[in-house]
Design a protein that fits this description.
The chain is of the alpha/beta class. The longest helix is centred in the C-terminal third of the chain and has 28 residues. The radius of gyration is 23 Å and the shape is globular. It folds into 2 domains: 171 residues, Aspartate Aminotransferase, domain 1 (Alpha-Beta Complex); 266 residues, 3-Layer(aba) Sandwich (Aspartate Aminotransferase, domain 2), CATH 3.40.640.
Length: 481
């Protein structure tokens, strides 16, 4: 007998946990809903000339064809019955072995026979990754979530330099209730891409103490998102030494390590793995295949830790929250084992990224927009503040909205990462050829007189100002995180 039709009833009641997690979104304007509005047809130079140009996603779609062919050699058709069963919580041994060799070369400085003679002449400490020290995760987002759950308690804080990756707040707070705490440079002349000084870290630490926040970790992104730069060896050593004195964990997100295409006369990229033959138990390194191989949809990453206790705790959490697909793990292992392919893919990938980043730089110079010179990553941090009447987040929100609706262009506004008002992250690797130039042609037509604020812009920015006072002010603000 079928159930009788029921009268209209109220919607389900969510748990307190679920309601609280819904408030753990990113800072800045929430434009996910906006992406469903207006002309959503992706831009095409022939079939959709007024289509949307989305430059807000840090995806690498520029070098997929050679990777697609290599992936086909290790498709699900090649899986054995063992691969199709439940796998180890830490990940397939085959992948951990292949990935350990890859990371030893990419991050640890271990040379391979395929390296050029120029690379062979570099003398740096080497770190050989132990496959048993790797725990596979469903991407770096899942890795950060699992680490927050295992290392910290609700209301604890993780320090991170500003500007920071906009989704770190969501990753830490949604399930674990851990707060991201920005470390701002007190010296206004310090470059935005530089590591904050020890005095800056101390100021953030002391503010946390005043707010009854226990600092349990420092989170570093190197190469950095959103500046597209990297920290010097001295900056890393100084910061790690301070963390050691404070007895706090260090989590280093090195997901963009394979995207370095630029050179800086004063420094080269330094992975924390190359600083010493051993990390010790309180330094953890993250890697994922989303940026290096453009495989964000695979949701596959790893945590490298020398702590047996931490890895054991992580595998318990990951066993519940989600072990990466074994066939996917097996497929990536097959790709990584072909070192000749990996070297050639990496070489071509860096050339493509360099060419596309130059396209953004050229447009910025043509339109007199300042920017941070990119050295790595899939984006350029561009300063559009000359299109704003005042240097405020309210004006930035108005500019973002105008660029979205009038130009049909999407870039990530700086408010979400606590960058200075007017800084926008322009992702160049997620759009088809010609899209960047077209986007800046549309923006070129704007003037600051075109940009008008709404009450929504003012209210949203006011909420951010209260948060800034909470983080950096005199302690009087009681704004909730």
């Amino acid at each position: 007998m079928l159930l009788a039709p029921k009268k209209e009833v109220a919607d389900i009641q969510l748990s307190i946990r679920s309601i609280q997690s819904s408030k753990a979104g990113n800072y800045g304007p929430d434009f996910k809903q906006m992406l469903n509005e207006g002309n959503t047809t992706p831009w095409s130079p022939t079939t959709a000339k007024r289509g949307r140009i989305n430059l807000s996603i840090a995806e690498n779609r520029l070098n997929f064809l050679p990777l697609q062919a290599k992936l086909a050699e290790h498709s699900i058709d090649t899986c054995t019955v063992e691969i199709s069963q439940y796998g180890p919580a830490a990940g397939l041994p085959r992948l951990r072995s292949a990935l350990a060799k890859h990371l030893s070369h990419l991050l640890g400085g271990v040379k391979e026979s395929l390296d050029s003679q120029e690379e062979q002449t570099e003398q740096k400490p080497c770190y050989t990754v132990n496959p048993n020290h790797l725990v596979m995760t469903e991407g770096v987002t899942s890795a950060i979530d699992a680490l927050a759950f295992t290392l910290s308690n609700p209301n604890d804080a993780w320090l991170t330099p500003v500007p920071f990756y906009v989704s770190y707040r969501r990753d830490l707070k949604t399930r674990s209730g851990v707060d991201i705490w920005p470390v701002r440079r007190q010296n206004s002349d310090a470059p935005l891409e530089s590591m904050p000084s020890i005095a800056d870290f101390e100021a953030a630490w002391n503010q946390c103490q005043r707010k009854n926040k226990k600092v349990t970790a420092v989170l570093l992104c190197n190469p950095h998102n959103p500046t597209g730069c990297f920290y010097s060896e001295d900056e890393l050593i100084t910061t790690l030494s301070w963390c050691d004195e404070k007895n706090v964990h260090v989590v280093v997100d090195e997901i963009f390590a394979a995207t370095i295409y630029g050179k800086d006369e004063k420094k080269t990229f330094t992975s924390v793995l190359s600083l010493a033959p051993s990390l010790g138990p309180r330094i953890t390194v993250l890697w994922g295949c989303a940026k290096e191989f453009g495989l964000g949809g695979w949701h596959l990453g790893c945590i490298l830790s020398e702590s047996d206790r931490l890895r054991e705790a992580l595998t318990r959490i990951i066993n519940i929250s989600g072990i990466p697909s074994s066939p996917i793990q097996n497929q990536l292992a097959g790709v990584l084992e072909d070192r000749t392919f990996i070297h050639e893919y990496s070489r071509i990938n860096k050339e493509i990224l360099a060419e596309c980043s130059r396209e953004v730089v050229t447009e910025c110079r043509r339109l007199n927009f300042s920017f941070i010179k990119p050295l790595a990553g899939l984006f350029v941090l561009v300063d559009l503040s000359r299109l704003m009447k005042e240097s405020t987040y309210a004006n930035e929100r108005a500019l973002f909205r105008h660029i979205f609706y009038e130009c049909n262009v999407v870039m990530t506004p700086g408010e979400g990462s606590m960058a200075p008002p007017g800084m926008f992250r322009c992702c160049f690797a997620c759009a088809p050829k010609g899209a960047v130039v077209e986007a800046f042609k549309r923006i070129e037509k704007l003037t600051k007189e075109d940009i008008t604020m709404t009450q929504e812009d003012i209210d949203g920015a006011d909420a951010m100002e209260r948060r800034l006072d909470f983080f950096f002010g005199d302690g009087s603000s009681e704004t909730k995180m």
